[in-house]
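Students often ask why inverse folding is considered easier than folding. One informal answer: many sequences map to the same fold, so there is more than one right answer. In these notes we will look at a single instance of the problem. The structure comes first.
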């Protein structure tokens, strides 16, 4: 195995934060999902994961820096010594090399837990709201089934235990940490446990009231529009928001938006003109107007 510092492109004195940041950047760049069919990138991807597994553990890194272990984590042989399980004459590793390295490490008292692996999973808004099952390729080469529970929030991290990098010398396998990125929705907007969405209504529905369908994350439901409703009027649909526990949910807030006909209607224009002449009213107070509003030069 290559020098882990060279694999990551770091100096030996790099900080733990630099190692982690570099690993995450390279893992994203070389990830098989981003470069399907690229064998060289996949090979580099695996080397990056192995390098991070060694350098992310302070004790193992220190022993490597002192020359006590090699890049695979196995104790270094003394100069001139040979091993029956070393590399073959062709330069390729023996097929049981990893097994014996691990045995040697265990015998030498080296026991290091495997590193966690990170992955950012992008899902649609309704997938996060309703729950979904996804399959992802992790930075350790594994392809995992990830169950996204209903009501998952943006930035939430799902921990898949034992699905990270393998340990050394009998150390525990690390975990897979899947961070959820939720794509915005054209209609719905999450605010904590609640959902907010505009509900378009006609002029007639706003003035006279009525029953209309409103879209929610569960599908359409019928709501009652009160007489004399206005743009900005809010209707609360209890329990129609995001899940926040086994049997609790937030609410859905439908914000009314009055929409006029797409084409001007002559009868409506004439009616409003006559009505407005008889019943004018103000909706903007003088105090709310900006200084010199409406002045022309």
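Output (designed amino acids):
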């Amino acid at each position: 195995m290559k020098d882990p510092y060279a694999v990551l492109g770091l100096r030996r004195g790099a900080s733990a934060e630099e190692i982690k940041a570099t690993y995450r950047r390279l893992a994203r760049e070389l990830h098989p999902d981003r470069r399907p069919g690229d064998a060289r990138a996949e090979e580099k991807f695996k080397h990056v994961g192995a390098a991070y597994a060694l350098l992310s553990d302070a004790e193992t890194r220190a022993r490597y820096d002192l020359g006590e272990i090699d890049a695979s984590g196995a104790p270094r042989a003394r100069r001139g010594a040979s091993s029956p399980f070393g590399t073959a004459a062709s330069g390729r590793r023996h097929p049981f090399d990893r097994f014996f390295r691990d045995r040697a490490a265990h015998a030498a008292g080296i026991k290091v837990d495997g590193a966690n692996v990170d992955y950012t999973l992008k899902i649609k808004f309704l997938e996060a709201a309703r729950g979904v099952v996804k399959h992802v390729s992790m930075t350790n080469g594994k392809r995992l089934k990830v169950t996204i529970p209903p009501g998952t929030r943006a930035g939430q991290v799902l921990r898949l235990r034992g699905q990270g990098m393998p340990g050394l010398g009998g150390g525990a396998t690390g975990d897979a940490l899947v961070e959820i990125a939720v794509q915005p929705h054209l209609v719905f907007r999450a605010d904590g446990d609640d959902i907010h969405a505009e509900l378009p209504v006609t002029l007639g529905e706003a003035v006279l009231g009525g029953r209309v369908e409103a879209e929610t994350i569960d599908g359409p439901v019928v709501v009652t529009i009160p007489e004399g409703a206005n743009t900005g009027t809010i209707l609360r649909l209890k329990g129609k928001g995001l899940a926040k526990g086994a049997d609790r949910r937030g609410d859905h807030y439908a914000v009314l938006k009055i929409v006029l006909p797409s084409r001007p209607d002559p009868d409506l224009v004439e009616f409003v003109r006559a009505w407005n002449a008889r019943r004018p009213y103000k909706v903007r107070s003088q105090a709310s107007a900006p200084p010199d509003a409406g002045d022309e030069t």
